[in-house]
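Q: My collaborator sent me two sequences in one message, no labels, and asked for predicted structures for both. Can we handle them in order? The first one she listed is below.
A: Yes, handling them in the order given. First sequence, followed by its structure tokens:
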Amino acid sequence: MAQSAVAAPRAAGQLRRDVGLTALMFISLGSIIGSGWLLGALTAAQIAGPASLISWILGGSVIALLALIHAELGSAYPMSGGTARFPHMVFGSIAGFTAGWAAWLQAVSIAPIEVEAALSYLNNKVPGLVSSKDILTQRGLVASVILMAAFTFINVMGVRWLAESNRVTVVWKIAIPVLTVIVLLFASFHSSNFSAGGGFAPYGVHGIFAALPAGVVFAVQGFEQAIQIGGEAKNPARDMPRAVIGAMIIGTLIYLLLEVAFIGALSPGNVAHGWSSPIGKGDFGPYATLATGLGIGWLATLLYVDAFISPAGTGLIYIGTSSRLSYALGRNGYLPGAVDKVSKRGVPFFSIILAFIVGLIFFLPFPSWQSLVGLVTSATAIMYAFAPVSLGALRRSDPDRERPYRLPYAAVLAPLGFVSADLIIYWAGWEVVWKLSLAMVLGLALFGVSMAFRPRDKRPLVDWKASAWVIPWLGGMALITFLGQYGGGRSVLPEWIDLIVVAIFSLAVFYVAVALSLPAQTVATLVSVEERQSEQAPELTTAG
């Protein structure tokens, strides 16, 4: 039965269910529109030229497919930290932890990425925050700590503080990109730019694919934030699919129009001989540089302001998201129990503080925006990949579940979604994948240590058979990437053959995983436990 639009009174220690459709959509859209909109068009154009438009369409289509898969899971199984819980219910602890760990790595690193981006933009008006090499200075590190502390405080104060703060920033974050598109299209549009510098696709298909993990996927990802807080929605069955799908459509359309406006507004002389430096020696404000060159000073000022607000707003959201994921990992018994404790305000206090501390640690080895983007994109792809395989297994093991939204042609689209996620990992390249592989190995080692020190009667289900596909999948993708054409790969696999290899390998893993999933009775028990925990757990969200 669908929940009432009015949240029921909350018992002590339970999640507060007071998030409506608008707030759900805004929290996903607020995650999609962050620093990526200010940097994505320039980065994509440098890698793919005008064919970057295809990169945005392809990236948006791939992520939209994964969003539709998440929409069914989120509406049928509305739980906080859902990306960690879906695979747990159907494959057991190893798969659940691996998905949750990838999701947590992605979420906990985005807040510091966005802080770095915000300060890098702000450095244009307040010099001394970032060095000439785009690395945080000592003053910048102090400012980073202050911003992270502010995000943490808002999250600690509770769901409604987070929701209302996000509402204000999301309205701004949508308005400024739309305004930028309109002004640039009318102020300066050179249609010849779309065939300049070597033609529409100067770097061929390779450039189109390479642009995806270099900024496109990073920009459009984020729709899953509504899924992560599903346990706090007023009416998740009705609102979850609408929020996820609506945020994806709006976000992708905005990014595509921004790329069109960016390419059209460029000086033809800057791209006549190539796309390596379309706006000259760049900074962190390509749109502001264009506006200044066109004499539109007021727009440049707005863009510099937005270049701080947009990343800061996304960072605010991800402090909350990462805390909900560590909360879910704690509830499933993967991490020490303190992370799933709830404060009197109904928020996972220790998980929020953990996100704050780990976020600060990321500033040390990754002191610039660019140094983290590839890692985040690949971690996101691993997190997303668990959704289609979980959907296929849950359709098989829990066929009678009420599904307010059903993915059409799931027998085709779910495997295709898994292949798409693996392609994103592959296109990120070996230089990124080996680092992510190391992080995943460290996570599994942490899982093993946690299990060793947890009392036997409190250990979560570890079903080796159901999770037997996980490590071969990750290892196989690392090997294919090492032999592939992207990001430091050895180019053993020829162009196009590499994509066929990824597709065949992914389909084999998908069908093996579904076949190995837990028996229906075990799945029913785990689903019941997860639902009970979600109803009797902390409250983590954004009021509607």
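Q: And the one she listed second?
A: Here it is, processed independently of the first:
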Amino acid sequence: MKQVSSVFWISLVIAVIFVIWGAIIPENLISTMSATQSFFMKSFGWFYQLSATFFLVFALFLIFSRYGKIKLGKEEDKPEFSRPTWFAMLFSAGMGIGLLFFGVSEPISHFANPPIGEGGTSQAAKNALQFTYLHWGFHAWAIYAIVALALAYYKFRKGYPGLVSATLIPILGDKAKGPIGKIIDIVAVIATLFGVAASLGLGAAQINGGLSYLTGIPNNFTIQFTIVAIVTVLFLISAATGIKRGIKYLSNANLGLALILFVVFIFLAPTVFVLDLFTTTLGGYVQNLAYMGLRLAPFNEENATWLQSWTIFYWAWWIAWAPFVGTFIARVSRGRTIREFITAVLIIPTLVCAFWFAIFGGTGIYMEYNLGLDVSGQALETALFFVYEQLPFSIILVVVTLLLILTFFITSADSATFVLGMQTTYGSIDPPNIVKIIMGLVLSASAVVLMFTGGLQGFQSAIIISAFPLGVVLLFTSYALVKAFSADLKESRQEQGQREKMTGRIRATLRRSRVKPKENS
């Protein structure tokens, strides 16, 4: 344990206090978190909206700016992983469980209870998918991209430790290594704990829903607790094998299972309908991106509540996840240029997510709009299985989905233990197994407490509260990046100028040496 920093001990104490609080007096924890969440939602909804939009604009600026040619590493560094493997790893860590949990349930929920207009109409169907794309699209991946970019740049090009506090060195200087830096890293660790715990809780709830569909077992906290306990053992075993074995193999397995499920579902779904719906809603999403991304409802309490429950919650969730996903993506992205990195992280997952929701969510909408089935009346964790029930080979679909949720569950938790270990051991890219095990246990315990005390509402409260201070830190990180990039290019120009001068001198010397002296007459 000599490698651990004070961030580990302080974060551990905070997390343990939270777990004990929820176990002993859950009612008090629920009321306190609900009141705090309400305050942040009503007072700072504008902050989350503007921050998410800023990160997207900043990411686009970097793609087209002169900084795009800077490499995340030394000039001679080459990418460690192939592009298919790289994409599988970042995608599995990024949003795996959420795509399955919300694939049907979010679009159908927006269809029945839309943010704009009347529910159950054709326009509500289009709006449902456009807002789902908003929540899982460019804004989300821009947040991840900026954090991952900062961590990779400072780690691999500048040799700084892979810590969130290190991304502020251009602003804070040596203070980033002192108490201020420690506070920043603690904020990042706590936000990561709550953000990932939410995903683990959703995964446990959906596994329970699928098993209930298959076997009829109860859908309750006891079963979900058992699922978390079993999966905890599995992901701790995976975490002990290291990033190049456990996470890499599981990420590729995730991608393979997801592709199988996706391809099979396309053929079973109303294919022409969902493809037409995807095309028109993708265009609407791009066309209305600025409006939807900045939309608030100061004159309509009902619409404001919807925005707080969905859009603001998602922005907070992605910010809370950013140190986790950002650290992991940075770890596997060495050797790529800024332009290549941001373009890939921003565009490819957004299109995949949009297509996924169009196929799964569009099928749910089709069943309710055209066939009259009550898809929107199902619980969030069972809506997907209700849709399966209406299709051929439903049992096979359920089994494949449960396996995919399980592997996503393990990969996300495995990746999170690596990131938490890295953030609490001075940025070590190979944190000790004991640190990962302790952080994994705390992560699972936090998920259990949140499930026990409030379910999805408890997850929302924890995420929104922890994401606010981290969002402020990430804004300063963006400013620090511009300073660092400008200094980097200035240094490169100076080095190039010196090389050109040296080359000129060498050429002049060579020319003089070739001139023969005149013979005496």
